[in-house]
Write a structure and sequence with these properties.
With 92 residues, the protein is α+β, with helices and mostly antiparallel strands. It is built from 4 helices and 3 strands. The chain has a single domain, classed as YefM-like domain (YefM-like fold, 3-Layer(aba) Sandwich). 34% of the residues lie in helices and 16% in strands. It has a 3-stranded mixed sheet with strand order 1-2-3.
């Protein structure tokens, strides 16, 4: 599995480094983003994930986990002008 795990803080990464490496080695994820002061700083990645990225192949990071699970009405944007008017202080 090469999906990205949930982001963790720097302190958690230092404290649980062995567990994170075990999770990566056992295939539970391909990369673990590490945050520093609320911003992404680095990724801890598997060798396979790194080699795929270095070879120019895009690593498989899962975005849009709910894609295809929900259907939206075709006219979902029909009321946008009315919502914008209300945000700008218009009368309801």
């Amino acid at each position: 599995m090469t999906e990205t795990a949930p982001a963790i803080g720097l302190f958690e990464a230092k404290t649980h480094f062995s567990r994170i490496v075990d999770d990566l080695v056992n295939g539970r994820s391909g990369a673990v983003p590490v945050m520093r002061r609320g911003k992404p700083a680095v990724y801890i990645v598997t060798d396979a994930f790194f080699r795929q990225a270095a070879a120019g192949g895009a690593p498989s990071i899962r975005y849009g986990l709910a894609k295809g699970k929900y259907r939206l009405a075709r006219d979902i944007d029909a009321g946008n002008a009315e919502v914008l008017r209300l945000f700008r202080g218009g009368e309801p």
